[in-house]
Design goal:
Elements (H helix, E strand, L loop, with lengths): L3 H19 L5 E6 L4 E7 L4 E7 L3 H4 L8 H18 L5 E3 L8 H11 L5
Parallel strand pairs: 1-4
Antiparallel strand pairs: 1-2, 2-3
Helix pairs in contact: 3-4
Length: 120
């Protein structure tokens, strides 16, 4: 029987394979959620570089948030990421939820990024 980590890695690779097939050259908005923080970055897979990133560990957000592990923190990270992406000239992205279900903090981050001006 496969371990939990193996299952998560397999699910994340399945999601990324499907996303890369429909990306059409658009950068990928990748999200990672831990028990204490949430991280997001926009990655250009063609060049292999990170265009913009934000997390609850950023000094701008860390002081203003009560905790990095709730939907309010995810919303703040989504808005900050959308702002940084617009400065970098990115409008259209493909959302990569990884092995995480589109619910709760992941959904809050995605909706905040959409409100900030990202299209996906």
């Amino acid at each position: 029987m496969a371990s939990r980590k193996d299952t998560l890695v397999r699910r994340a690779s399945r999601v990324r394979r499907q996303i890369k097939a429909v990306a059409n050259g658009r950068p990928r908005l990748s999200v990672h959620r831990s028990s204490k923080n949430i991280y997001a970055q926009i990655i250009d897979d063609v060049a292999g570089k990170t265009i913009a990133s934000a997390s609850t560990l950023d000094t701008d957000l860390r002081s203003s948030l009560k905790t990095g592990a709730d939907t309010a923190a995810a919303t703040a990270v989504g808005k900050l990421l959308a702002e940084r992406a617009s400065k970098a000239g990115v409008k259209d992205v493909v959302f990569d939820r990884g092995a995480f279900i589109y619910h709760g903090r992941i959904k809050a981050l995605a909706e905040a990024a959409r409100e900030g001006g990202l299209n996906f």
